[in-house]
Amino acid sequence: MLLKPKNMQNNWNLERANEILATFPPNRSELIKALHALQDKHPQYYLPDEVLDLVAKHFKLTKAQVYGVVSYYSMFSTKPRGKYIVRVCQSPVCHSMGSETLFDFIEKEWDLKPGNTTPDGKITLEKTECLGRCGKAPSMMVNETVYTDLSPEKLKEIWSNLT
Q1: In what order do the strands lie in the sheet with 123-128?
Q2: Is this structure's pTM higher than 0.85?
């Protein structure tokens, strides 16, 4: 069942969201994959409230159940984000190897704090839990790419490729 589109950005609308959902059987085992597909296809890389309604209906869940999944996993967002999502690992190992220093450097160098997006809407900075690269800490992920053994110098080089 299609719901009427509300105000959504660019070519994204609820009809497009319904098309994406239709590719997933309504089995709960498909929920996380469907949420990722919906978020990845949104021009601002997030899950709007209206989409959570569609997901709940498709999977025969309550909206609270869907929101519980979305809010539990740090890779999902209910807020608009930039084209590049920079996630700096905050695991105990990365923290002890200097990830907080990276946040301080990013704030000083580019005036960006965790949870915020650059004024041009290009980069969103997030804290995340373990990226599984403890042997080469500190690490971060930019969209799907993981970077390790980070230093301010290496961070500057990576950042220059994003802007």
Answers
A1: 123-128, 84-89, 140-142, 145-147
A2: no
